[in-house]
Amino acid sequence: MNDNIVLLIILAVLAMLFLALAVVLFVVHYQKRITTINLLKEKELTEAAIRAEEEERMRIAAELHDDVGATLSSVKFYLQMGEKEATPDVFLQSQQLIDESISKVRSLSHRLQPAMLLQLGLQDALQSFFAPFQKNGSIHIEYTSDKLPPLHDNLALTAYRIVQELLNNTLKHATATHAEVYTEIADGQLCLCFSHNGQGITETQFQQYIYKKEATGLKNIINRLKVVNGTIAFEQEKNWYHTIVRIPL
Known about the structure:
This protein is an alpha+beta fold. 68% of the residues lie in helices and 16% in strands. It has helices at 2-84, 88-112, 115-120, 122-136, 153-174, 203-209, 216-227, and strands spanning 140-145, 178-186, 189-196, 231-237, 240-248.
């Protein structure tokens, strides 16, 4: 009888040890799986950032070649005409084309490193960025802001680039006619709200899209926010979609 009890105790201990070992192995396997998934996600985000940079370089190269290059070729043509027949119209046309080239180069320079952002701050830089969209009528943008204090260059540039990306996505995918942008400082954070009346995404859709290969713009935003410990959230209110970005000061 005693032998049976001892045997049962031994079997129970062995069963408990086996169960504990199984739990440990499961936890280790689960942690490895989570680590692998996180590494894959990090790789996807890094690749997306690289793709976004390369796409931007290609766009700038195309603009330099197609727009600025073509305009300067026209200037050369008119100047060559001027060597044969120096008329006021030839020089006037050349001057206009040179002015156009200067404007295009300034626009490209602004995209690469907005001078106004460094000189006057985020608020004025955003106001200047939205101004051309008001003129061409593609979308009406209303920008309001509390008075922003001077911000660290990296923080201001991050916010500026995120707004550029959000507007670019809106123009490409949302078919919106109206957008509203608001910035403020609250609870030690820069809060930025970008809203539009087109086709947007919700928080649930964002979690689904973020790891898709084609979601380069969203991944670029996430990478920028990771550097400054910022957060992003998506909300829907009737026919309006809101993107809320918060960046600690």
